[in-house]
Amino acid sequence: MRCGAISANKPPRRRIAVLRPEPGNAATCARIRAAGREAIALPLFRVVPLAWVPPDPRDFDALILTSANAVRHGGDALGRYATLPVHAVGAETARAATVAGLSVVATGGDNAAALLDEASATGVYRALHLGGAATTITTHGVVAASIAVYASDPVDVPPKALAQLLGATALLHSTRAAARLAALIPTQSPERASIALSAISAAVAAAAGDGWAGIAVAMHPNDTSLIAAAD
Questions:
Q1: How many Å apart are CA 102 and CA 96, to the nearest integer?
Q2: Residues 224, 216, 187, CA angle at the centre, nearest 5°?
Q3: 174 with 20: CB under 8 angstroms?
Q4: Which of 96, 93, 117 is nearest to 107 (CA)?
Q5: For residue 23, is the peptide bond before it cis, meaning its omega torsion is within 30 degrees of 0?
Q6: For residue 19, which of 193, 157, 220 has the smallest C-alpha distance?
Q7: Gap between the Cα atoms of 209 and 113, Å rounded
Q8: Which of 166, 173, 182, 203 is deepest in the core (most CB within 10 A)?
Q9: Is this structure's pTM higher than 0.85?
C-alpha cells in the first residue's frame, strides 16, 4: 500500500518538444517515441541552401564540417573535395559525409574549437570550413577559408502551436534555438514558468535565460543524453 501511494503521487511525465529544424526534428521525435514518450514537433527554423562558389581544392589540406546540413545542402560541388581528409563535428555529420563519398579521418564532439585544435595537432594548417550562415569560422588559425553553404531561417510559430509547450519540456540543440525560444516566451510571460528545458550544453542553457520551470543539461552533446536529461 505504501508503494502504491508513492506511485499514485508521482507526477506525470512531461511531453517533450523538439525545436530543431528538419530533418533532425523528425529523427529526434522518433527517438523520443521509441522510448515511450510523447513528442511534439515544433521546429523554430527551416534550413535552406545558399549559393556558394567552391574554391579550388588544391588550396587546402583538409575539409572541416561542423554540421550535417553542410553535407545535405552543399550540392554537387562537395564532390570536388573527395580527396581532402574530413574533420567532422559530431557523429551525425561524420555519417552524412561518409554517405556523400567524403573521407572522414576524425570525428569530434560538438565543440568545433576542440576539433580544430586536434586537426592542427595532426598537421592541418590550411583547412576549408563549410558550414551555416551563423557558424562560419574566422578566428582559428588552421582555417584558411570559411564558407556558408546553408542558412537556418526562422519560421513563424502561431500562438496555438506555441501553446503546445505549456507543461512540456523543450529540447534545445543550439544557442540559436535557446535565444529564439526566449524571445517567443519572454521573461515576464507567465507561461515561461510552466515550461522546462533540456539543453545540449551549459552554453545553450545560459542562452535561454531564467524563469523556466527547470533547466537540465545533457551529460553528453547528443540526442540520447538530451532526451535522458528531459526526465
A1: 9
A2: 130
A3: yes
A4: 93
A5: yes
A6: 157
A7: 24
A8: 173
A9: no
